[in-house]
């Protein structure tokens, strides 16, 4: 059943919001949890669609999954009987490829269907496969499955041609149970890479240097039980920080690591917002008109590609002409047509968006093309005059937990509805 967000915009968002666990860290950590035969407890798990799909896929191959509550899960991987993860689950989420590194590390054999996920451009998996081959695995693609197997994995020196978060994590997982020492050069430095390394180390792995571009791993024979809490989600936090700016509001995002948000905070300061940092919270206040700036997406610690659509929404109502250069994914501007329906003035030339600021957005019917662009369109709706309806919200639910509820708590007029009739009801009610 198709669901929609319907929004009455023009209300400044004010208050506090709790940020959940990082989806991208959680997906890799869940996969890594099956690398021991003992029970692993994971806390601060975000309760979003991608996570639930991965847990289903893991249960399907024999992992024992016990949901203690919404944000805690116990996983036991001692009964895994299938080393093949079927397509049905994979096509829904991309990160299921982490099961390759986990199963290969533990069993020297893995078969996982080629991954799906949001269509934001080509995200080749060849770096992952190159890494597995370097560790001594035979890797082939058969009938849409990636098959990796070996007698044993042996440590080696791997240089990644391109900085890739997924490949860094996947190779790190497999190498943590290989024979000998592995060095990964040009490794990704993202916070969730560090989180996965810390998690593996808490299970008895020996990984050093995560968060720098050289990671050193000494393989161990077995891993053991642990209890681990996932880091807060920097993209969810950034989304609410931008929602404060776009609606001329005042929001404190709580349960965050301010260091992870530096690139986002810097851009908000550049456009004229006030940003105040605390130990585990950041406050964003926007009381003056915003002005233009230039943004280029880069690997961490640069400006995150996952915050690019939200940034464009902000610059769309800032004074003057801004440019946004997307250097990570080539298909990341599909939301521009939708934003234009709301009155934005944006021209895209190859990987650069030239944004001429307008005085404000007008409510319209728009469609979410992917997860982050969907969240960005919601922010535009919150800042717009009149009523905005966002469809395809299943994308948004892949990565944001209780999005409409959290926004509602900050004063937003937003509802999740199931039909045209409900949209009309809402419109009459807020009139």
Task: Write structural notes for this entry.
This protein is α/β, with parallel strands linked by helices and 431 residues long. The protein has 15 helices and 24 strands. The protein has 2 domains: 4-19 and 232-430, Enolpyruvate transferase domain (UDP-n-acetylglucosamine1-carboxyvinyl-transferase, Chain, Alpha-beta prism), CATH 3.65.10.10; 23-229, Enolpyruvate transferase domain (UDP-n-acetylglucosamine1-carboxyvinyl-transferase, Chain), CATH 3.65.10.10. Strands 22-23-1-24 form a 4-stranded mixed beta sheet, sandwiched between helices. Strands 2-15-17-16 form a 4-stranded mixed beta sheet. Helix 10 links the parallel strand 18 and strand 19. The longest helix is centred in the middle third of the chain and has 13 residues, at 234-246. The protein is globular and about 65 Å long.
Compute the average pLDDT. Answer: 95
Structural class by secondary-structure content: alpha/beta
CATH class of the largest domain: Alpha Beta
Largest sheet: 4 strands, mixed
CATH superfamily of the largest domain: Enolpyruvate transferase domain
Question: Which fold name corresponds to the CATH topology of the largest domain?
Answer: UDP-n-acetylglucosamine1-carboxyvinyl-transferase, Chain
Helical coverage, percent range: 25-40%
Number of structurally distinct domains = 2
Spatially, the strands of the biggest sheet line up as 22-23-1-24
- Which descriptor suits the 3D outline? globular
Distance between the termini: 26 Å
What portion of residues belong to β-strands?
25-35%
Number of strands: 24
Label the CATH architecture of the largest domain: Alpha-beta prism
Number of helices: 15
User: In angstroms, what is the radius of gyration?
Assistant: 22 Å
Low-confidence residue ranges: none
